Recover the amino acids of this structure.
Protein backbone atom coordinates (compact mmCIF):
# COMPACT_ATOMS: atom_id res chain seq x y z
CA UNK A 1 0.00 0.00 0.00
CA UNK A 2 1.43 3.30 -1.05
CA UNK A 3 1.80 5.88 1.70
CA UNK A 4 -0.07 9.17 1.46
CA UNK A 5 0.69 12.63 2.79
CA UNK A 6 -1.63 12.28 5.76
CA UNK A 7 1.13 10.85 7.91
CA UNK A 8 4.47 12.46 8.56
CA UNK A 9 6.52 9.43 7.58
CA UNK A 10 5.19 9.45 4.08
CA UNK A 11 4.45 13.04 3.14
CA UNK A 12 5.81 13.53 -0.31
CA UNK A 13 7.19 10.04 -0.51
CA UNK A 14 5.41 7.93 -3.05
CA UNK A 15 6.91 4.73 -1.74
CA UNK A 16 6.46 2.46 1.28
CA UNK A 17 8.00 4.18 4.26
CA UNK A 18 9.68 1.30 6.11
CA UNK A 19 12.63 1.03 3.75
CA UNK A 20 14.05 4.16 2.10
CA UNK A 21 13.70 4.15 -1.64
CA UNK A 22 17.43 4.44 -2.45
CA UNK A 23 18.12 1.55 -0.06
CA UNK A 24 15.30 -0.43 -1.64
CA UNK A 25 16.87 0.21 -5.04
CA UNK A 26 20.27 -1.03 -3.88
CA UNK A 27 18.84 -4.11 -2.14
CA UNK A 28 16.73 -5.03 -5.11
CA UNK A 29 19.57 -4.41 -7.52
CA UNK A 30 21.82 -6.74 -5.52
CA UNK A 31 19.20 -9.46 -5.30
CA UNK A 32 17.62 -9.26 -8.73
CA UNK A 33 20.03 -7.57 -11.10
CA UNK A 34 18.97 -4.20 -12.55
CA UNK A 35 17.17 -1.83 -10.18
CA UNK A 36 13.45 -1.33 -10.74
CA UNK A 37 12.29 1.93 -12.27
CA UNK A 38 9.94 4.08 -10.20
CA UNK A 39 7.38 4.74 -12.95
CA UNK A 40 4.83 4.77 -14.29
CA UNK A 41 3.34 7.19 -11.82
CA UNK A 42 0.92 10.09 -12.28
CA UNK A 43 -0.06 12.92 -9.94
CA UNK A 44 -2.71 15.56 -10.58
CA UNK A 45 -4.46 18.46 -8.87
CA UNK A 46 -7.88 18.37 -7.18
CA UNK A 47 -10.34 15.49 -6.80
CA UNK A 48 -10.94 15.37 -10.55
CA UNK A 49 -7.23 14.55 -10.81
CA UNK A 50 -8.31 10.99 -10.02
CA UNK A 51 -9.78 10.64 -13.50
CA UNK A 52 -6.74 12.24 -15.11
CA UNK A 53 -4.21 10.05 -13.33
CA UNK A 54 -6.19 6.86 -13.97
CA UNK A 55 -6.48 7.76 -17.64
CA UNK A 56 -2.74 8.49 -17.79
CA UNK A 57 -1.84 5.15 -16.23
CA UNK A 58 -4.19 3.33 -18.56
CA UNK A 59 -2.52 5.09 -21.48
CA UNK A 60 0.87 3.82 -20.26
CA UNK A 61 -0.59 0.33 -19.86
CA UNK A 62 -1.75 0.44 -23.46
CA UNK A 63 1.75 1.27 -24.67
CA UNK A 64 1.33 5.04 -24.86
CA UNK A 65 4.20 7.45 -24.33
CA UNK A 66 4.45 9.90 -21.42
CA UNK A 67 3.09 12.66 -23.69
CA UNK A 68 0.19 10.41 -24.70
CA UNK A 69 -0.45 9.84 -21.00
CA UNK A 70 -0.42 13.57 -20.22
CA UNK A 71 -2.63 14.45 -23.17
CA UNK A 72 -5.12 11.64 -22.56
CA UNK A 73 -5.35 12.37 -18.84
CA UNK A 74 -6.02 16.05 -19.37
CA UNK A 75 -8.41 15.47 -22.27
CA UNK A 76 -10.48 13.38 -19.90
CA UNK A 77 -10.97 16.38 -17.60
CA UNK A 78 -11.55 18.75 -20.52
CA UNK A 79 -14.15 16.31 -21.82
CA UNK A 80 -15.91 16.11 -18.48
CA UNK A 81 -15.79 19.89 -17.94
CA UNK A 82 -17.38 18.78 -14.73
CA UNK A 83 -16.61 21.42 -12.15
CA UNK A 84 -16.85 24.45 -14.34
CA UNK A 85 -13.14 25.12 -14.46
CA UNK A 86 -11.61 23.16 -17.32
CA UNK A 87 -12.69 22.96 -20.96
CA UNK A 88 -15.45 24.76 -22.76
CA UNK A 89 -17.77 24.11 -19.83
CA UNK A 90 -15.54 26.33 -17.71
CA UNK A 91 -16.81 29.50 -16.12
CA UNK A 92 -16.92 32.37 -18.58
CA UNK A 93 -14.85 35.51 -18.61
CA UNK A 94 -16.25 38.96 -17.91
CA UNK A 95 -17.73 39.12 -21.39
CA UNK A 96 -19.60 35.86 -20.93
CA UNK A 97 -17.60 33.26 -22.85
CA UNK A 98 -14.75 30.86 -21.97
CA UNK A 99 -11.15 31.46 -23.05
CA UNK A 100 -8.90 28.52 -22.36
CA UNK A 101 -5.22 28.17 -21.41
CA UNK A 102 -3.08 25.02 -21.59
CA UNK A 103 0.47 23.79 -21.92
CA UNK A 104 2.46 20.59 -22.17
CA UNK A 105 6.14 19.94 -21.51
CA UNK A 106 8.38 16.94 -22.02
CA UNK A 107 11.48 16.22 -19.94
CA UNK A 108 13.75 14.76 -22.63
CA UNK A 109 14.68 17.57 -25.01
CA UNK A 110 13.03 20.15 -22.74
CA UNK A 111 10.32 20.61 -25.33
CA UNK A 112 7.12 22.54 -24.67
CA UNK A 113 3.97 23.84 -26.32
CA UNK A 114 1.42 26.28 -25.02
CA UNK A 115 -1.83 27.99 -25.98
CA UNK A 116 -3.48 30.94 -24.30
CA UNK A 117 -6.84 32.72 -24.49
CA UNK A 118 -8.07 30.07 -26.89
CA UNK A 119 -11.72 30.18 -28.00
CA UNK A 120 -13.91 27.34 -29.21
CA UNK A 121 -11.36 24.52 -28.88
CA UNK A 122 -12.67 21.78 -26.58
CA UNK A 123 -9.23 20.24 -26.03
CA UNK A 124 -6.62 22.96 -25.62
CA UNK A 125 -4.10 20.40 -24.34
CA UNK A 126 -4.15 18.81 -27.79
CA UNK A 127 -3.64 22.22 -29.38
CA UNK A 128 -0.67 22.80 -27.04
CA UNK A 129 0.85 19.47 -28.05
CA UNK A 130 0.41 20.38 -31.70
CA UNK A 131 2.23 23.67 -31.09
CA UNK A 132 5.08 21.71 -29.53
CA UNK A 133 5.28 19.03 -32.19
CA UNK A 134 4.27 20.83 -35.36
CA UNK A 135 5.41 24.43 -35.08
CA UNK A 136 8.69 26.23 -34.58
CA UNK A 137 7.19 28.05 -31.62
CA UNK A 138 6.45 27.38 -28.00
CA UNK A 139 3.38 29.53 -27.37
CA UNK A 140 0.46 30.75 -29.47
CA UNK A 141 -2.34 32.98 -28.22
CA UNK A 142 -5.87 34.01 -29.12
CA UNK A 143 -7.02 34.04 -32.71
CA UNK A 144 -3.70 32.75 -34.04
CA UNK A 145 -3.75 29.84 -31.63
CA UNK A 146 -7.25 28.88 -32.76
CA UNK A 147 -6.27 29.19 -36.42
CA UNK A 148 -3.22 26.98 -35.88
CA UNK A 149 -5.26 24.38 -34.01
CA UNK A 150 -7.91 24.21 -36.72
CA UNK A 151 -5.23 24.04 -39.45
CA UNK A 152 -3.74 21.03 -37.69
CA UNK A 153 -6.98 19.16 -37.33
CA UNK A 154 -7.71 19.86 -33.68
CA UNK A 155 -11.42 19.60 -32.90
CA UNK A 156 -13.10 23.01 -32.90
CA UNK A 157 -16.59 24.42 -32.41
CA UNK A 158 -18.11 27.39 -34.17
CA UNK A 159 -17.47 30.62 -32.31
CA UNK A 160 -19.51 32.90 -34.56
CA UNK A 161 -22.13 33.23 -31.86
CA UNK A 162 -19.56 34.72 -29.49
CA UNK A 163 -19.60 37.89 -31.57
CA UNK A 164 -22.85 39.10 -30.05
CA UNK A 165 -21.57 38.46 -26.53
CA UNK A 166 -18.35 40.29 -27.27
CA UNK A 167 -20.16 43.29 -28.73
CA UNK A 168 -22.54 43.44 -25.80
CA UNK A 169 -19.64 43.43 -23.39
CA UNK A 170 -17.74 46.12 -25.27
CA UNK A 171 -20.86 48.30 -25.24
CA UNK A 172 -21.64 47.57 -21.62
CA UNK A 173 -19.50 47.76 -18.55
CA UNK A 174 -15.96 46.44 -18.85
CA UNK A 175 -14.93 46.35 -15.26
CA UNK A 176 -14.62 42.93 -13.77
CA UNK A 177 -13.16 41.45 -10.64
CA UNK A 178 -11.42 38.16 -10.94
CA UNK A 179 -13.60 35.68 -9.11
CA UNK A 180 -11.68 32.65 -7.94
CA UNK A 181 -14.72 30.76 -6.67
CA UNK A 182 -15.10 27.31 -8.17
CA UNK A 183 -12.12 27.70 -10.40
CA UNK A 184 -9.50 25.03 -10.72
CA UNK A 185 -6.84 23.83 -13.10
CA UNK A 186 -5.95 20.31 -14.01
CA UNK A 187 -2.19 19.96 -13.73
CA UNK A 188 -0.94 16.45 -14.42
CA UNK A 189 2.64 15.22 -13.98
CA UNK A 190 3.86 11.80 -15.05
CA UNK A 191 6.95 9.65 -14.64
CA UNK A 192 7.33 6.88 -17.19
CA UNK A 193 8.84 3.43 -16.75
CA UNK A 194 12.16 4.67 -18.14
CA UNK A 195 12.35 7.38 -15.47
CA UNK A 196 11.53 10.38 -17.68
CA UNK A 197 9.08 13.10 -16.67
CA UNK A 198 6.44 15.10 -18.54
CA UNK A 199 3.49 17.26 -17.58
CA UNK A 200 0.64 19.40 -18.74
CA UNK A 201 -2.10 21.66 -17.51
CA UNK A 202 -5.40 23.04 -18.77
CA UNK A 203 -7.93 25.53 -17.46
CA UNK A 204 -10.60 28.03 -18.32
CA UNK A 205 -8.80 30.29 -15.85
CA UNK A 206 -10.16 32.52 -13.19
CA UNK A 207 -13.89 33.16 -13.61
CA UNK A 208 -14.83 36.71 -14.57
CA UNK A 209 -11.35 37.48 -15.91
CA UNK A 210 -10.98 40.19 -18.52
CA UNK A 211 -11.05 38.93 -22.11
CA UNK A 212 -7.46 38.31 -23.17
CA UNK A 213 -6.29 37.68 -19.63
CA UNK A 214 -3.67 34.95 -19.55
CA UNK A 215 -3.09 33.12 -16.30
CA UNK A 216 -0.21 31.07 -14.99
CA UNK A 217 -1.28 27.78 -16.56
CA UNK A 218 0.17 28.25 -20.07
CA UNK A 219 3.28 30.03 -18.80
CA UNK A 220 6.24 27.69 -18.47
CA UNK A 221 7.83 27.97 -15.06
CA UNK A 222 4.60 29.36 -13.60
CA UNK A 223 1.72 26.89 -14.09
CA UNK A 224 4.02 24.04 -15.16
CA UNK A 225 7.69 23.19 -15.32
CA UNK A 226 9.45 19.98 -16.25
CA UNK A 227 13.16 19.26 -16.03
CA UNK A 228 14.32 15.77 -16.86
CA UNK A 229 17.35 16.07 -14.59
CA UNK A 230 15.14 16.69 -11.58
CA UNK A 231 11.37 16.27 -11.90
CA UNK A 232 8.26 18.32 -12.55
CA UNK A 233 5.88 20.71 -10.81
CA UNK A 234 2.39 22.05 -11.53
CA UNK A 235 0.34 24.85 -10.02
CA UNK A 236 -3.26 25.80 -9.42
CA UNK A 237 -4.88 28.72 -7.62
CA UNK A 238 -5.04 32.33 -8.65
CA UNK A 239 -2.60 32.63 -11.54
CA UNK A 240 -1.68 36.22 -10.81
CA UNK A 241 -0.17 35.02 -7.55
CA UNK A 242 1.83 32.20 -9.14
CA UNK A 243 3.14 33.83 -12.29
CA UNK A 244 4.76 36.78 -10.50
CA UNK A 245 7.05 34.31 -8.73
CA UNK A 246 7.77 31.64 -11.37
CA UNK A 247 6.30 29.21 -8.85
CA UNK A 248 6.85 25.85 -10.54
CA UNK A 249 10.32 26.75 -11.75
CA UNK A 250 11.22 27.47 -8.16
CA UNK A 251 9.77 24.16 -6.93
CA UNK A 252 11.90 22.29 -9.46
CA UNK A 253 15.00 24.30 -8.59
CA UNK A 254 14.51 23.57 -4.89
CA UNK A 255 14.29 19.88 -5.77
CA UNK A 256 17.50 20.24 -7.78
CA UNK A 257 19.15 21.55 -4.63
CA UNK A 258 18.18 18.33 -2.88
CA UNK A 259 14.77 19.00 -1.34
CA UNK A 260 12.17 16.25 -1.60
CA UNK A 261 9.08 17.36 -3.58
CA UNK A 262 6.99 17.90 -0.44
CA UNK A 263 9.57 20.22 1.13
CA UNK A 264 10.14 22.02 -2.18
CA UNK A 265 6.40 22.78 -2.58
CA UNK A 266 6.17 24.05 1.00
CA UNK A 267 9.32 26.17 0.62
CA UNK A 268 7.87 27.91 -2.41
CA UNK A 269 4.69 28.74 -0.49
CA UNK A 270 6.83 30.16 2.32
CA UNK A 271 9.01 32.10 -0.14
CA UNK A 272 6.03 33.67 -1.92
CA UNK A 273 4.20 34.39 1.33
CA UNK A 274 7.32 36.13 2.64
CA UNK A 275 7.58 38.40 -0.39
CA UNK A 276 3.93 39.11 -1.03
CA UNK A 277 1.91 41.70 0.93
CA UNK A 278 -0.93 39.19 1.23
CA UNK A 279 1.29 36.59 2.82
CA UNK A 280 -0.32 33.19 3.29
CA UNK A 281 -3.73 34.48 2.18
CA UNK A 282 -2.59 34.06 -1.39
CA UNK A 283 -4.49 31.40 -3.23
CA UNK A 284 -1.68 29.16 -4.51
CA UNK A 285 -1.23 25.40 -4.63
CA UNK A 286 1.55 23.20 -5.99
CA UNK A 287 2.13 19.55 -6.82
CA UNK A 288 5.55 18.08 -7.60
CA UNK A 289 7.12 14.81 -8.65
CA UNK A 290 10.78 13.84 -8.80
CA UNK A 291 12.62 11.25 -10.81
CA UNK A 292 12.73 8.82 -7.88
CA UNK A 293 8.94 8.69 -7.90
CA UNK A 294 8.60 10.83 -4.78
CA UNK A 295 5.82 13.39 -4.81
CA UNK A 296 4.44 16.22 -2.73
CA UNK A 297 1.89 19.03 -2.59
CA UNK A 298 1.36 22.26 -0.70
CA UNK A 299 -1.21 25.06 -0.57
CA UNK A 300 -1.09 28.48 1.03
CA UNK A 301 -4.59 29.02 2.23
CA UNK A 302 -6.68 25.89 1.99
CA UNK A 303 -6.81 22.13 2.37
CA UNK A 304 -5.62 20.91 -1.01
CA UNK A 305 -6.76 17.59 -2.50
CA UNK A 306 -4.77 15.83 -5.21
CA UNK A 307 -4.62 12.39 -6.80
CA UNK A 308 -1.81 9.90 -7.33
CA UNK A 309 -1.91 6.73 -9.42
CA UNK A 310 0.54 3.95 -10.16
CA UNK A 311 -2.05 1.35 -11.12
CA UNK A 312 -5.62 1.29 -12.33
CA UNK A 313 -7.06 2.99 -9.24
CA UNK A 314 -5.86 6.40 -8.13
CA UNK A 315 -5.57 7.44 -4.49
CA UNK A 316 -7.16 10.71 -3.48
CA UNK A 317 -4.86 12.46 -1.00
CA UNK A 318 -4.75 15.91 0.53
CA UNK A 319 -2.49 18.28 2.40
CA UNK A 320 -3.56 20.83 4.97
CA UNK A 321 -2.66 24.44 4.31
CA UNK A 322 0.98 25.33 4.94
CA UNK A 323 1.45 26.62 8.48
CA UNK A 324 3.06 30.08 8.46
CA UNK A 325 6.64 30.03 9.81
CA UNK A 326 5.63 32.43 12.59
CA UNK A 327 3.21 29.80 13.94
CA UNK A 328 5.51 26.79 13.69
C1 LIG B 1 -5.71 30.75 -13.44
N1 LIG B 1 -4.48 29.14 -12.16
O1 LIG B 1 -5.99 30.94 -14.61
C2 LIG B 1 -5.67 29.33 -12.95
C3 LIG B 1 -6.96 29.02 -12.26
C4 LIG B 1 -6.87 28.00 -11.20
O2 LIG B 1 -7.56 27.20 -9.22
O3 LIG B 1 -6.02 27.15 -11.17
N2 LIG B 1 -7.69 28.05 -10.22
O4 LIG B 1 -5.47 31.65 -12.65
Amino acid sequence: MRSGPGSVSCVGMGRPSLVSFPLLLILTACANGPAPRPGPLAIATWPFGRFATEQAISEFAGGGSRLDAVEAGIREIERRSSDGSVGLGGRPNAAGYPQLDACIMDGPGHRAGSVAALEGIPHPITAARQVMERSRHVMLAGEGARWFAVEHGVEAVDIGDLDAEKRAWVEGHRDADVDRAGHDTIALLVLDAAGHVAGGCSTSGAGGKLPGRVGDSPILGSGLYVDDEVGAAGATGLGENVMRYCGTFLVVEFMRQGMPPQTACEEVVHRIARLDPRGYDLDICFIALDKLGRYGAAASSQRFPFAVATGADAELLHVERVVPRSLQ
In short: Confidence is low (pLDDT under 50) at residues 1-34. The pocket of N-hydroxy-L-asparagine is lined by residues 183-185, 203, 205-206, 215-217, 236-239 (CB under 6 Å).
